[in-house]
Amino acid sequence: MSEAYTELLIKRRPSFGMVLAKSLLIGLTGACLVLTLLGNPFTILGMVVFGAIFFVVRGKTDLEYEYLYVGGELSVDKIIGKQKRKPVINMAMEKIDLVAPTNSEHLNEYKNKSLKKIDLTSNTGKPSYTVIYHGKEIQYRVLMELNQEIVDAMYNIAPRKVFVTVQSKL
Question: Is the pLDDT of residue 161 over 80?
Fold first, then answer.
């Protein structure tokens, strides 16, 4: 078995709703601060509450995904606010059915199947890959932004399961 080691860090772009919520909380905190400075002592409580909510929301919107491929196993961790790390999924090549570009014809047989979808992309519209993975009880459709190095390492382990793009160096 190959002992290939590759890692990739993907920063997820926050949704429009989360950006709007952060902006609204900043505005409310600022308005409470101005009212407090103008002499209304009751708005200091609103300033503290809105500031605390902003602090929590800000940490939740700063998401990164770390893809780690080591010797036939692809694992993904979610990094929240550059402070907390949570494992998302751990996929061994033996349990991966297919790896292909997202709009590939190789995925046609999985279009009408009910698979649990996990989106681990940056939300920027970059080209992505779809990994069909069967876990203990459920089959997953995992959307990922794999770089060519990870795809090539997976192809070297299981060439019949991995369909590469034309840019491959193989």
Answer: yes
Strand-pairing partners, residue 88, are none
pLDDT tens for 89-128 read 999 999 999 999 988 888 888 888 888 999 999 988 888 8
Report d(CA 143, CA 129) in Å as an integer.
Answer: 6
Q: Determine the 3-state secondary structure of 123 from DSSP.
A: coil
What sign results for the dihedral spanned by CA atoms 148, 152, 153, 158?
positive
Q: With CA atoms as reference, report the closest residue to 73 among 86, 91, 89, 87.
A: 91
> What is the DSSP pairing of strand 116-120 with strand 139-144?
parallel
Burial of 3 (0-12, 13-18, 19+ CB in 10 A): exposed
- Look up the pTM and report it: 0.78
Q: Tell me the C-alpha distance between 124 and 89, whole Å.
A: 21
